[in-house]
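fold-stage: in
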Amino acid sequence: MDFRLAEFKASYGTFEQIPPSDRPEIAFSGRSNVGKSSLINRLFGRKALARVSSQPGKTATVNFYTLDEVCFADLPGYGYAKVSKSEKDRWSELIGGYLADDRDIALVFQLIDMRHSPTKDDLQMIEYLVENELPFVIVLTKADKLNKTERSNRLEGLKTELPYYDQLTVVPFSAVTDEGVGELRNIVEELVQNTDNQI
């Protein structure tokens, strides 16, 4: 796959606007400002395919990108305190509606800031994915911001903080050093290959 050929497809602000899926989808989920846009840009080798903002809560829509026969869905960041309750409810409905719909979700990349313990929202999302049998990979973002000792401590801590840790695929990632980019691309390519073989 030539990841640089990914294209922005569409953006939807309410669940009702989202058309049915017509191909396998890979979703990006995580709290506000966890680095979803930066990850998408590194994954596809593009500087501004997804808009990066230093202001949390900027992505308030589901943004779709296409590459070959796969669709990528960038979900709004959850857990940002400084938005109105009505806006939070809309985001919740958007994310929940997308995940609960009868869509062809092949995988969810669940992003967690490696510097901190998973938030209550992170853990709720992981439980939701497990309960609904949605396959997912944990991506630990901002890995470059930790020194060797801090990194080792966080990886050790996650073993008790994340449910089902021994059954999870966990990928440390950095948009600065490109750590994890190759591994994530391999996961996507393997998924696409398996999907093609099933058709």
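fold-stage: in (second)
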Amino acid sequence: MRYMVEVVARRIAGDVVLSDNPSAALRKWRELFGFSQSEVAKAMGVAPSVLSDYEKGKRTPGLKFLRRFVEALIRLDEARGFPTLKKLVGSLSMVSGAVIDMGEFSEPMRLDEVLRIVRGVPVSGILEDRMVYGYTVLDSVEAITTLSGNDFWYIMGLTTERVMIFTRVSMGRSPMVAVRVAPVKPAMVVIHGPRRSVDPLAVILAERESLPLVLSLADDIEEVVRELRERAVALY
């Protein structure tokens, strides 16, 4: 359920961010969840008049406000047993099937620290002093066969400064092709699979994108997921 919550949260946030009318999008999602302005405002810790101003377009939602708004919807829905979220997950079955886990770090993490966690060996790109703020772990087969370009907006969250880990990888060519044609790019790509080698074409694609590509030598991807999850902050 946890990663499904993350996927739905990003679907809502992405819809608002990309909307030509963010205020209308805020109202749409509140009404879709079936909550009043007073209920959502109370869950957010703001006055109903503040939320009303955002929904009327008198104020423009920033990332902090949007996060609080999404968290409020999910907390309120959880109290009812997640009826709306379960319906949304059904409509996002392809995305949720591709996502193994995703999260936002409680504190920004250096790429070299992520490299340690994934037991990684860099095969392309320079691991400079760059910070990342989250991670997404994908089933490479499901991701490549089911995700559209727009779906990458949702699995990337509100920032591209995250690590994308592909599991069940053969040689790494297909994940890099998918990343190259996606409208948004992660800060680093990690591939994990039974083979301990990387397709030369995958390296070439990573170099063309100036994107660090890392081969994970971890025996069990679940151990990697657990350690990443320990560094993540709960969504709500």
